Amino acid sequence: MFLNTLTPKFYVALTGTSSLISGLILIFEWWYFRKYGTSFIEQVSVSHLRPLLGGGDSSAPTNSTTSNGEADSNRQNVSECKVWRNPLNLFRGAEYNRYTWVTVMQKAWRERNPQARISAAHEALELEDCATAYILLAEEEATTIMEAERLFKQAMKAGETCYRRSHQLQHHSTQYEAQHRRDTNVLVYIKRRLAMCSRKLGRTRELMKEFPLLSMFNIHENLLESLLELQNYADVQAVLAKYDDISLPKSATICYTAALLKARAVSDKFSPEAASRRGLSTAEMNAVEAIHRAVEFNPHVPKYLLEMKSLILPPEHILKRGDSEAIAYAFFHLQHWKRVEGALNLLHCTWEAFRMIPYPLEKGHLFYPYPICTETADRELLPIFHEVSVYPKKELPFFILFTAGLCSFTALLALLTHQFPELMGVFAKAFLSTLFAPLNFIMEKVESILPSSLWHQLTRI
């Protein structure tokens, strides 16, 4: 009787009113999202309704373990974004230019007048035995790694001579002291590049062991990669214990290598289905937390390690926590992750769980909040044909999409009901009849089972 008494005007009013209400909710949700970066309904449900229903607080306490150098770097604005030299950058002549010549591809980076610099280096060598001139020729003019190694060895002889001379005079004045620091930096750089030549030529055991703690060269990153190639995980752990310190700046190499060592202990037997049934063990929890820490530092790396995005030649300079650093890390360390059985599977599962956390990088649990200047700097460092990875992309919350769909649907129903009131009334009655059909069926069964007198008393109540 109720359905038969409803007129088409009622359906027009009903759909129009619901469309208006959903439209107002959509406008409020959009305004709140633009102002606060989250959905109002989602925030209320997570913050207020979930504790009432017995859910725990998923947000972990803030554990600020970042370094002082990292704090200064990440607090800078867009124009002050610090760029670091890639410690594993390829040799310009032997690898970059050779690759360009062979494949006729656009250069991954450009320099102004490289031939002019090479000519100036040759002119400097005609005047004296200059270590930096040999370095420039080894980096840019050498077309093979063996030729680059030969030039670096010549630079080593010249650099050691300058180092011994300045070492004796460093205490005479501040000028000599500055000269000694420069000669030390040059010598360390030469030794590191010689070690890289040995690494690329397969002589992995001819590597440096101890150098001064010069974070500007990131020598420990070269050492970590070489030790991983040797599968000397004990020495890798020893290097991490020395450099993965709260007072030292972090990098993707440090964070992801630490995660790899933790994952190596459990990845061969890890199963997502078994872990969901029995829960994570202590070792698995440590591995997952280490991967979470690495992903929070640089969220671009997993796509390259999981080969969801193609790699390119690493740039000469990188931006910490940026896409350029992720490319540089994955280019040299992908093989080390593949060598550890199940490590990539554990990384994939943990990364997918990390992506489900709302705005994980903006909370700054383990590091300072993710800087917003990385995309602009990476576009300048990386070639134009590479699609720069941007994370996190602020996608519209589910409730805004749901409200928009509901508003559009009800508006369409209101329009159709206004144009075809009788036909839409028939459809509405048929829909409601179908919706209440299971309830009517149950009521009929109850009436047939219960005695008529009892059912009469229940209906009166």
From TrEMBL:
Statement: the UniProt record of this protein carries the keyword Transmembrane helix: yes
GO cellular component: membrane
Bilayer topology term: Multi-pass membrane protein
Domain of life per record: Eukaryota
Keywords assigned: Membrane, Transmembrane, Transmembrane helix
Any one Pfam family match given in the protein's UniProt record, by short name: ST7
Compartment list: Membrane
Polar residues composition-biased segments: 59-77
InterPro entries: ST7
Region named Disordered: 57-77
Coarse class of the protein's main subcellular location: membrane
Keyword Nucleotide-binding annotated: no
Membrane spanning stretches: 12-33, 396-417
Similarity comment text for this entry: Belongs to the ST7 family.
Name under which the protein is recorded: Suppression of tumorigenicity 7
Protein source organism: Muraenolepis orangiensis (Patagonian moray cod)
Organism phylogeny: Eukaryota, Metazoa, Chordata, Craniata, Vertebrata
